[in-house]
Design goal:
With 146 residues, the chain is mostly helical. It has 2 domains: 8-40; 42-140, no CATH class. 65% of the residues lie in helices and 0% in strands. The protein has 5 helices and no strands. The N and C termini lie far apart (88 Å).
């Protein structure tokens, strides 16, 4: 410590140095976050999309669960009454148990399709690739499910 320094001057230097460091850190953080903020939507829009997603799930979720439960029961009965034939129960299981159980913001924005009635994975790939005539690396399914 400097003997000629006035009392309290050392503390003021520490405060000024700390203030500068915090200022430089905040500036660096602001500059790093600026490109991200340019791509983000407004906070009000994001809040609105989140609220809409919650409300949509309050309606959609229970309806999908009841549909899946009923489909599982019907598929079980179809399996039992057909003498254990899986090909009878499979389309019922695929339609009722597959699909989306939750609505996301991507569904509401139209970036993803909301799939209430499920499809087999092979049929989903065919439809996503543009249909039956679209070129695909995967072999065609043995049973298209018609």
């Amino acid at each position: 410590m400097d003997c000629l320094a006035a009392p309290g001057e050392e503390e003021r230097k520490d405060v000024r140095g700390t203030t500068r460091l915090v200022g430089v850190g905040l500036l660096a953080l602001w500059m790093a976050a600026a490109p991200l903020a340019a791509h983000a939507e407004s906070p009000a829009k994001e809040f609105g999309m989140g609220a809409a997603t919650v409300v949509a799930n309050l309606v959609y979720g229970p309806v999908k669960l009841v549909y899946a439960l009923c489909g599982g029961l019907v598929a079980s009965m179809a399996y039992a009454f057909s003498g254990g034939d899986e090909e009878v129960a499979r389309p019922i299981v695929d339609a009722s148990l597959r699909g989306d159980y939750f609505v996301t913001t991507n569904h509401l924005r139209g970036k993803e399709d909301l799939e209430f009635i499920g499809r087999r994975p092979a049929l989903r790939r065919l439809q996503d690739d543009g249909g039956w005539g679209a070129p695909s690396d995967d072999p065609p399914p043995d049973d298209p499910g018609f």
